[in-house]
Amino acid sequence: MKKYRVVQWATGVVGSSALRGILRHPRLELAGVKVYSEDKEGRDAGDLIGAGKTGIVATRDVDAILALDADCVLYCPLPWDLGEICRLLESGVHVITPCPYWFPFVQSPDVAAAINVACKQGNVNMHASGCNPGGIAERFPLTFSGWCNQIDRITMTECGDCTSYSSEGVMRELMNLGKTPDAARNNPLKAMLAKSWYEPIDMIADGLGTHVVSYAAKHDFILAAEPIETAVGTLEKDTIALNHYQHIGTTAAGTVITQEQIWFVGGTEQKQLQAKMDIPRESGWRISLEGDVNLNVDVDFPPELSHDERVAQGLSTTAFHLVNAVPLVCEAPDPGIKTHLDLPMVTGCMGTDASAR
Questions:
Q1: Where do the H-state alpha helices sit in the chain?
Q2: CA distances (Å), 77 to each of 100, 268, 329, in order?
């Protein structure tokens, strides 16, 4: 079996897990590591994640990364840069990312066109994957839709105590945690976030053989009753401590598809909040399908794990989904954007000695 040379681009929370996954994957070889900070530059990749020496030294030099003759880049910075993605694709390297563009054809046709042009120029593919979006939001609901015939409603709900989540950009900007109500309502990322959640809705609709005819967004929140300590600092009283998003698409076939996120801090008891919300589950994800067959599929981690361990494993699922997709993306024909509708099943890989079929 061919082994693929992979670059890990960015070594934040998700990127570090992806780097660890590359080193363990039987079909992958680490080719390079792109970092952003001076203190990481020049260090061995293994040192960045507490692993053994790899002989691969991290660099901030983009040209040095492009010169590595890698097969694929796992592109994990926040914020991301469409120009960088296209430059990588044009250079002839496949790109897999947890950043948006899971299914950009409806919400951002100009972006989809630019990426496809870059893919064709480099004769490579681009795939956006992850946990949610990237799995829970679209791949898994579509899988369970095969058990149904008439589907009236599909709802994906993510519930998460984010007290220990250490990405300040995600917590304070995407999740609005710690913002005032006015700042949240005027968040410049609001439109981008809506597009990001409409993309999985569009993918589900497409996978069901239909399309979305109307979209809606709902946003409400609960404020902190007192200062709350988190991994990204103190969230002050009267700022958002529970953020509730709903993004909804209604298809031409009448199926209503909802992406719902309930993000909060301070524990599931919500004792430090000014009010309480009836949360459908303490933590994790619920996929609900309603119609001639009614399903609730809960995805969670074992209850004996600590909260910090659950957060860490949740972030690792995004990283490992990217890592496991590398061979499929590199081998997919016809250069361009590859969504979950275009690729075979993404599975874990524990060896290279599978029986011939």
A1: 13-24, 45-48, 62-66, 82-90, 109-122, 139-145, 168-169, 181-185, 190-207, 307-331
A2: 11, 30, 20
Amino acid identity, position 257: I
309 CB contacts (<8 Å, ≥6 apart)?
301
The tokens describing 340, both together, are 């979950």
Q: How far apart are CA 232 and CA 251, in angstroms?
A: 39
Report pLDDT for 280: 80
- Same domain as 45, residue 173: no
Q: In the beta sheet, which residues pair with residue 257?
A: 154, 249
Cα–Cα distance, 292 to 178 (Å, whole number): 42
140 Rama sector, left if φ>0, alpha if ψ -120 to 50, beta otherwise: alpha
pTM of the model: 0.92
Which token pair is 59?
């660099």
The residue type of 74 is: L
Over residues 220-250, the pLDDT tens digits come to 999 999 999 999 999 999 999 999 999 999 9
Element (H, E) at 83: helix 82-90
Q: Are 141 and 289 in contact (CB under 8 A)?
A: yes
Give which of 102, 231, 251 is closest to 178, Cα–Cα.
231
User: Which residue range forms the structural domain that includes residue 82?
Assistant: 4-128+315-337
H helices, E strands: number in the chain:
10, 14
Sheet of strand 4-9, all strands in order from the earlier edge strand to the far edge = 28-34, 4-9, 72-75, 94-97, 125-128, 336-337
Determine, yes or no, domain membership for 342. no
* Strand, coil or helix: 105: coil
pLDDT band at 193 (very low <50, low <70, confident <90, very high): confident
Between CA 170 and CA 172 the distance in angstroms is 6
Cβ-in-10-Å burial (0-12, 13-18, 19+) of 98 comes to: buried
Q: Is residue 98 part of a domain?
A: yes
Residues 292 and 325 reside in one and the same domain: no
Among 272, 300, 328, where does a domain finish?
Answer: 300
